[in-house]
Each structure stands twice: as structure tokens, then as C-alpha cells.
Amino acid sequence: MRFVCFALLLLAGCSGGAPEAVQTPPPAEPVATSDQILDFEIPASLADHVVVGATLFSAEYPKFLKAPLEEPICKEKSKVKRGKIANNIWPTDEGDVVIVSSSEPLGTRSKSAKPKADHVVRARFEYRDGFDGTIWTRHTGKTGLGLKIVGDSVQFVQGDQPLTHLQPVYKFDRNRSVEIVITMMGTEVFGQIHAANTGLELLTMHTKTTLVDAGSTFVTGDGAKLTYLATRNLCGYSDELGDRKPVKRFVHLPRQIADKPSVGTLREETETTRVYEMNALELETLYCSGIRPAEIDIEPAWKYVDKSYTEYRDKPPVRAPKGFRNDLSFKNPKMVEDLLRGYAAEFPNNASLHEIGRSYEGRPIWALAIAKDVQPNDPRPSVLLNGAHHGNEPMSVDIVMDAIQVLLTSQNAEVQGWLDNVVVWAIPMVNPDGAQAFLEDTMFSGRKNGRALEDGLGKGKREGVDLNRNYPFRWGVLGDVSALKNPHGKWYRGPKPASEPETQAMMALANREVFAASISYHTGTVCIMAPYTVEDAPNPEPNDAWRIGEVLRDAMGKQIDGRPFTVRKNIYEVEGIDQDWFRYTHGTVALLIEAHGSSPTDYCQRKDAIEPNRIAWQELLRLTVSKSVIIGNVVSEDGKPLNAQVHVEGQAFKNGESWKTRARDGLFARYVEPGDHKLNIKTDDGRERTIPFTVGDKPKRVTITMGN
Known about the structure:
- The protein has twelve helices and 33 strands.
- The protein is elongated, with a radius of gyration of 28 Å.
- Helix content is 18%, strand content 29%.
- Mean pLDDT is 85; it is low at 1-60, 83-91 and 239-245.
- By secondary structure, it is α+β, with helices and mostly antiparallel strands.
- The strands form seven sheets. Strands 5, 6, 7, 8, 9, 10, 11, 12, 13, 14 and 15 form an eleven-stranded antiparallel beta sheet that branches. Strands 20-21-23-22-24-27-25-26 form an eight-stranded mixed beta sheet, sandwiched between helices. A four-stranded antiparallel beta sheet has the order 17-18-16-19.
């Protein structure tokens, strides 16, 4: 039995005796900001604290599978075509009892009807600038069930009491005509909002109500035209309606119910429950047959659509001839931890496992430090690779895991040279709470972390903070943008800068390591973003981050869907992202790569999509180890490291940047073009020097001694 025991390394280092327990970084203190959110200070409690060093554990060598369950085969390079939005809205049903069928201005109240308690309501609106109104049903004159529309957001209410959080509707302001469908089945209530012209589903909602008796259906409000309002009683449709309502429900049935209902597709089976995927009509058929589900989910979890993930999610890592197979499926937090523990155990000289912090829900955030004979407080420059700031982007995890596999198993001479000269910090999953939610709970969640709101409605699946809107640089500069300030908004930036433990953990590690360069991997499109991405934040000139982004672009070529990588400032207005904070605070050449348009379930597409992104981090290490960069240490006459600002003369700063040396050893790294340059060094105690130097097409190493 092989045992691996790593020491816990804190900032103070290691001494004899029992190792201390792993600690979680303390909450960040309020960050002082100017009106432009530029003049902030990192709280001492955060800047001085980080849990680093190998994970504290003594465990048997991780169990593993000797071979994949089934070896995927790719006969040729996969081809990806970008699809179009399918029309998933259904035509008017003959069973509808029409209340309003012409374009009428929405006054204080529409015409009304009184369907049975279990029924469907359909309403279509045309509007210009949004509207405030409520679709009421089961209304008794005193109270009723309502779907309330407020600007670009909606919520279910019961009378004047909210049943759900106020949720923003996807691209609501871009659609001038919407169709809303409300379905009532006993205590279960469903809402769907579609773009009326394209059928694109904008939002699906689900709640429960105590109002189960029949009542009136009508609409109140103003600011829009009500062009259609109809009801249809449940359990009275004809077979001619067919399967024209494809919105999915995931229905949990106790196992004691018949082995398989007459409708639905089995998606998951446990000891107590079977989960079936059903469309709206199938669920209606089930309900009308007298079967009552134990639970209904309106939002599919990734586990329901990705066969490879469900096959491997409960399995130990699969061995490769060296290292592990990272390409067989996407990974939840437990799978990432098992793999990283496996690498640390198999490559103890070159891989050191660190818990750098804990997520909001208490999951560890793991980092693997990779270098030849990696040491505590390693004196070599550090480069960061990270994935899954957004947990709903599992492809980003795979790209970082692929880098780990290559760096630890390749015998290529160039790769070995990188490991001689640089420490690569690989953090595959910055946001383990979001990843877990996306894979296991709902694909409509996971972008944000696990922060819960205390508003009396219980924790919703769309809560949390977008970690890549939570970093202090220019946090809040976009003001009252609803998606940024609304806790249920897609890009909610948090209650204050650096409020989240995941953000704090990344900042603390960056403050300790002072990364020379970094890549944050994302998915959603294809591009390279170079800081500063905030619109009104001017970049240093010359802008070495942009130049290096262009080098990576030229090397990467195109993604498998044919789109070339481009270098951009941003995709849309943005604030509080990690690369801007890394750049502003430490001068890190911090790039964000949108690696692929999606996270494909197809093995061959994943494999081919990783290739150009592997080129990106390899090219970044090549620039750091083999190209024109100056790396040095600023020390006192007795060889002790000094805190000093190191500035390449001629590079103009426009945001008050002050890029300093690494505290533990006085290290700095500056990416320059070949030629003659000057370094301006200014220590914290006021000593100054200007050092001329010449850089060719190879790195230059210097030690700068500052006299008294």
C-alpha cells in the first residue's frame, strides 16, 4: 500500500512537529474605492494570508480505472456547424378559449374568463419600452395567482406576496413581442416566456401555490398591447395537438410507481427515484392519469444530456500510460480533486497540490503547482492557468487539465525546459459551487457561485455572484446596469468588491506569487481578450499584453468551427474581471481566452477544440522562457529581497499603476521587445536606480542591488 503525505506550507514556512490545519482565508474587509473605483487598497488581512503548500492529507494512492469504459474513436477531424435557433413555440390550439384576439391597448384590466382550476393561460404582448403588468388566474376577487412583469423581469406572486424571486428575462429588451404561457396543475405552476416571432425560449419558471380552486383569468397593467389572451382546461386536449410543446420538464417518480409511465424518457435512476424527461403535453398526460410526481424540475441538469459525464461522474480517474485520461468526460469538483490528488501522488517532485481557499458552500479550491523539483516559496517566476470562473463552462476545466497532463508527462525537451525555469500554477476549477450546480442541478445555473440571498423565499437556483465581475478593479463603474446590481441577474457583481471567498483566494495567491503572466479560460465565443477590458480604462503604452495576445493569436489559428481567434479589448461592457485586476495590481500579462463557442458533449469535438488552446499556454510559456523578457530580483546589499516598483522606462501608465516585486524574493518579470531599455527601480524606503540593459531574442536574468 502506497502512502503519500504532503506537508502543509504556510507563509511562515514549515517547522518540526505536527502540521497545522488547513485554514480558509478570512472574509475581505471593505475595499476603499474612489469614484472611479481605481484607488483601492487590498485589506491587509487578505493580502497577508493565503494557504499554500501541498494539501494536508495522508491517504492511500488514489484508486483508478485501468482503462476507459469504452474507448472513444475519432475517424477524422470533427466538423462543427453553427446551428440556428429552432422554432419551439406552438401554433394556436383549437382548444383555446379566446378572451382577447386583437391588438388592444392594455388598460387597467382586460376581459376575463373563468376556466377550471387546472388550465393553461396564453398571453401575447407587443411593447416598445417594456411594461408593468400582471397575468392573473385563479383569481377569486380578493386574491389570485399572478405572473408579474416589471420592466425586463418577472416573478410569480400570490396576491401581493411574492412566490419567486424577481428574475430578469433573457434579451427581453430585444424582443418587441413576447408570448407567455402559464400552466396550473394542482399546486404546481409553470411559466414560459418566448420571443413571439422566433419561438426562442427566454425564461422558464416553476413554483408552488396554495390557491387550488377555480377563479378568473385576466390581465392588468399598462405600457403594452395585449394581442392574444386565451385559456385551455387541462385533460381535455385531443390527440391532434401532437407533440408541439417541446419545453422540457424533469419528473421525479418514486420507484414504487409502475416501472415506466406511458410517456417520457428515463434519464436517471436511483435507489428511490426514477427521473423522466417529459415535454409539457407528456407531463399533462401523466397528471391527468392520476400520477403525482414527487418533484418536478423545469431546468435540465448537464447530467441529463451528457452520457459520458453520467458514465464517469461516480468513477475514479482512468489511468493513462503516464498520468490520467482527462479527455473522457467533463468533471465535477470531486472528479477534479481526485485527478489532482492522483497527479500530486504520481509526480511528487514536479507537482505540489494546494488548497488555496474554500468556496461559499465550503468546497475546496485546488491548485497544482508544476515545476521540476518544485519547492515551497519557489524562486522561479510563476505563470497562472485557470478555468471555470464560470461553473457552466466545463470545457475551460478540461483545457487546464490537459495542460497539467502535458506538463507532467511529456518528455519533450522544450517542455522540460519550461519546467526548469517556470512554476505553472494550474487551477482547473475556480468556482466549484457553480460547476456542481450546472452539472447536477440545472444548466441555467452555475455561471455564478453558491452565495445565497436572505430574502425569505429560500435559495433559488439562479442566485450567486458572478466571480468574474467581483474583482476590485473598476468594480461598480457601470453603475445601475440591472444585470450587474440585481442578485438574480446573470452578471451580478456581488454586494461589494472582492466579497466572495473564491475571489479572495485568487487574489491572495496572486499577491503571493505575483504572476508574470496568466490565462483565464472561458467558453461562449472565440477570441483573446487583452486588458484593460473596461471601456474607459486606458492601457499602458506600449501595451505588452496586447502584443503577446497577438503572438498567441497567430499561433492558435482557427477553432474547429472555422472561426479565427482575434484579439479584442472586450466583447461587451464589463467590469470587475480577474485579468484587469491582475494587470493593474501586479503588471501580469493577463489574458482571457474565450476558447470555444460551447462545451460540446461529443468527445471528438472536445478533443479537437482543445488543440488550439493547448497552443496558447505553450506559446505563453515559450515567450516567458525562450524569448525577450527581463527577469530579475531587487535586493539589498546584504542580499535580502526588497519591495520595489520596477518600471520599464518609456512605458506610460495612465491608471496610477505601481507594479512591484514579489515580497518573498524581490522577483519581477517584464516582457519587452528586443533592444535597449532602461529599468527604473524605486524601493518602498525611497531608494532609486536606473539600470540600462539590452535584451536580445532570449531572456535576460539580472540581480539589482540597491545600496543605502
